[in-house]
Design brief:
The protein has a single domain, classed as TIM Barrel, CATH 3.20.20. 39% of the residues lie in helices and 12% in strands. The protein is built from 14 helices and twelve strands. The strands form three sheets. The chain has an eight-stranded parallel beta sheet with strand order 4-11-10-9-8-7-6-5. Strands 1-12 form a two-stranded antiparallel sheet.
Length: 380
C-alpha cells in the first residue's frame, strides 16, 4: 500500500488526496470513522483493491509534442465533465458534516463532475439538485415496488441526469466494525427518501448488531433478477448505469438490456469479502461490452495516478468514494473542493508525465503489473 505523510503530525495541510484520511480519522468519532472506512468480514477485499492498483505500472511515452492536456470526459448525462470522474454514491453524509450531501453536491458542481446521490441520502434529492451541477441518483430496489417507482419518478422530476442502480447488495455484507460498535444512526440523521415510519430501527442501538444492516434487510428487495432490471430500464427515460458488476458475462447481459454504462465495483470491499479487486476485472468487462456502453471503475481510487491506471485499462472514468467523505469531514464543502482540486492536479500531472495530451492518449498507454507482464486491456 502506498505510504503517505501524516499532515497532522507534519504540521502541513493535505497535499494529496490520500493524506485526507489521517485528518478525517482524527476529527470523526471512532464509530463513524469505522462506518466510513470499514469493509466486510476480515476486510481482505478492502485491502486487495489498493494492492491491485498499486501493482499496475504505466509505461510513459516521450517526445509526443503535446503542449498541454485536456481532461474533459463524456459521462452519462454529463457530456463535458471536467474530469473522467464522478463522486460515488455514499449514504448518510450528515454523519460526517452537518451540511452533508448539499455540501458535496456544491463541491462537485464547482469541480465540474457528476455527484451521485445515494437513495439513503440524509438530505432530499430536490434540495441537492438545487445546488447546481450534474446529479446522478443511486437506487436500491425496495420490497415495495411502488415505493421504488415513486423514488425513480421523484429523481426524474428533481432533474437528475442519470439513474445508478446498485445490483451487488442481495443483502448487506457483515461489516464487523459496525457489529462490534453496535452502530446506529443518531436521531438527527435519517434516509430522506424512505417512509419515516420505517426508519425507527436505524436509530436503535443493539449490542453486536448494525442498525443500518437491520434496516436494509427489512427494506431492500430480495431475489432480484434480470427481469427486474429490464423493467427498470423500461420505466425510466434517464440514462441507466448499473453498479456492482465484476463478471464479464453479467456485464454483457446488462448491456443487452439497454444499460448506458457499467460500474466495475466490489462495493469498496463492503460486500463479499474475498471478491476479486475491481481493477483486476476492468479490462475483461470492457472487452465484453459494446463500444456504446461506458465502463467506470469504482473501489480503491485514491489519486490521479489511479485514474490514469483505470483509463489505460479501458475505463471511461472512475467513481471517487471515501476520499470525498474524508474531505467533507475535515472541512465541509471546502474540504471536498480541496479533495477534487487535488485529484485534478494529480491527474493532470500524471497525464503530462506520461506524454498524454488527452484521455484518448491515456487509453493507448501500456500498463504492466509488478512482475513486468503486460496488464490486459486498454488500447495498444
Amino acid at each position: 500500500m502506498t505510504a503517505v505523510a501524516d499532515p497532522v503530525t507534519t504540521g502541513s495541510g493535505p497535499v494529496s488526496v490520500a493524506e485526507f484520511a489521517a485528518v478525517a480519522q482524527r476529527v470523526l468519532p471512532a464509530g463513524i470513522w469505522d462506518f466510513v472506512a470499514g469493509g466486510s468480514d476480515t476486510e481482505l477485499t478492502l485491502a486487495a483493491n489498493r494492492r491491485a492498483l498499486d501493482r499496475i505500472g504505466l509505461v510513459p511515452r516521450v517526445l509526443t509534442g503535446s503542449p498541454g492536456c485536456d481532461t474533459r470526459a463524456e459521462l452519462p448525462g454529463a457530456p463535458a465533465a471536467a474530469l473522467p470522474v464522478a463522486v460515488a454514491p455514499m449514504a448518510y453524509q450528515r454523519l460526517v458534516h452537518p451540511d452533508g450531501e448539499r455540501a458535496t453536491a456544491r463541491a462537485a458542481a464547482a469541480a465540474g463532475v457528476p455527484f451521485t446521490l445515494s437513495m439513503l441520502s440524509s438530505q432530499p434529492v430536490e434540495s441537492v439538485t438545487a445546488q447546481g451541477g450534474v446529479t446522478w441518483f443511486q437506487l436500491y430496489c425496495l420490497r415495495d415496488a411502488g415505493a421504488t417507482a415513486d423514488v425513480v419518478r421523484r429523481a426524474e422530476e428533481a432533474g437528475c441526469a442519470a439513474l445508478v442502480v446498485t445490483v451487488d447488495v442481495p443483502r448487506m455484507g457483515r461489516r464487523l466494525r459496525d457489529l462490534r460498535n453496535g452502530f446506529a444512526l443518531p436521531t438527527d440523521v435519517a434516509a430522506a427518501h424512505l417512509d419515516p415510519a420505517s426508519l425507527r430501527s436505524t436509530h436503535e442501538r443493539r449490542p453486536g448488531a448494525s442498525a443500518v444492516a437491520v434496516h436494509t434487510a427489512e427494506a431492500f428487495a430480495v431475489g432480484l433478477g434480470w427481469d427486474d432490471l429490464a423493467r427498470l430500464r423500461e420505466s425510466t427515460r434517464l440514462p441507466l448505469i448499473v453498479k456492482g458488476v465484476l463478471d464479464p458475462r453479467d456485464a454483457a447481459r446488462v448491456a443487452e438490456l439497454g444499460a448506458d454504462a457499467v460500474v466495475v465495483s466490489n462495493h469498496g470491499g463492503r460486500q463479499l469479502d474475498g471478491a476479486v479487486a475491481s481493477v483486476d476485472m476492468l479490462s475483461a468487462v470492457r472487452e465484453a461490452l459494446p463500444e456504446r456502453c461506458g465502463v467506470l471503475l469504482d473501489s480503491g481510487i485514491r489519486g490521479g495516478t489511479d485514474v490514469l491506471r483505470a483509463l489505460a485499462l479501458g475505463a471511461s472514468g472512475v467513481l471517487l468514494g471515501r476520499p470525498v467523505l474524508w474531505g467533507l469531514a475535515v472541512d465541509g464543502e471546502a474540504g471536498v473542493r480541496r479533495v477534487l482540486d487535488l485529484l485534478a492536479a494529480e491527474l493532470l500531472s500524471a497525464l503530462e508525465l506520461s506524454g498524454c495530451a488527452d484521455l484518448d492518449a491515456a487509453r493507448r498507454l501500456t500498463a504492466r503489473v509488478a512482475d513486468g507482464r503486460p496488464a490486459p486491456g486498454g488500447v495498444r
